[in-house]
Give the backbone structure.
Amino acid sequence: MKYISLFVAIIFLMISCKKESQKKENLLEDQLIVKAKEIHDKIITLDTHCDINIKNFTDSINYTQDLNSQITLPKMNKGGLDVAWFIVYTGQDSLNQAGYTKAYDIAMSKFDAIHKLTKEIAPNQIELALTSDDVRRIYKKGKKVAMIGIENGYPVGLDISNVKKFHDLGARYMSLSHNGHSQLCDSNTGEADGKWLHNGLSHLGKEVIAEMNKQGIMIDVSHPSKESMRKMIELTKAPIIASHSSARALCDHSRNLDDEQLQWLKENGGVVQTVAFTSYLNTEKFEKRSVKEIEIGKQIADSMGVTWLEREEVMKLSAEGKEKYYDFLGTMAAIRRAKVKKMDNLPPAVDVIDFVNHIDYMVGKIGIDHVGISSDFDGGGGIEGWSDASETFNVTLELVKRGYTEEQIAQLWSGNLLRVLDEVQKIAEELQKT
């Protein structure tokens, strides 16, 4: 009986210790949340890559409403996302005048949509910023901030004067290609088949780099090939950015930057905006999860009367066809996100921990001054814990858990990117004097 009593006492003590340990863990978690909220509310949070659909920029359907899209003003308010770079994206099509003209028209429609949001639809809630001073001024007024980036230099066509035109419309960064080689440079997609068009940059691409320096537009290397990036860095007089890329050492995808590219970027003084895109963060988790998510996506496509296409099939579509299919993907993804949240027994999703692992790696490799944050919302981005703008706080919370200071978190969220923008614009002012 004595031994039984002793055994019971030990079990009771173990349970008590476990409860006490759990209380301490909960208290620590609560303290971290409070600390993270204080930091999140004090700093400027900036996301360099949010795609748009012009159908969401009308008088009746727009970002003042809580739409299915991953970024809206209500979602930005809920998650504490202060600055969104809205993207003027055009898919890659034929390298001829007809293709350039169509791409230019698409680009202009997206510029118009962003201007409509900030000038007509919701000027009391969001303003367009052109400089870091604008960002801080608008932020202090309690409004959200819109900025503009161009994904794919294809709509420049053969007319270099379009670079200045796009700058005057508010563009403050541009990538020279997307998925497919443009008239300006080779894309990372050439790595898949080993076929290249320019061995990096075309002659016109080199001229566009010089013009971007002159106008004060940041050069974005997220989609161009590694050789394109190397030649851009050789030519540019200003720092560059990767607007939405992660670390290739952790996830071997051609859209990510390898250690050599990261070192180039550091030496150039630029910044890589870590992207919350599942297949660029954790290959193993992504592949296991995607089997089930593709199955769900196909069911949704069937219910919508849409034929599901594999990536290779999408790439063969015209720019107009891609745009239409991407519209479907955006709608499908929103429906799927809602369904998945209610499902059990799915393989673990790529999450905020995986995302911040890339931030940690790149900070360790090239330093805190050269790393930032992006989502690629409404363009395929979004992870567990940061599935839309309403969950933005979770990124700050994870950074606090990792031991990042308020100053470092401010750098990651906006300070580094705005520092590069300032340097690019200062160099442009000097070039315009010569």
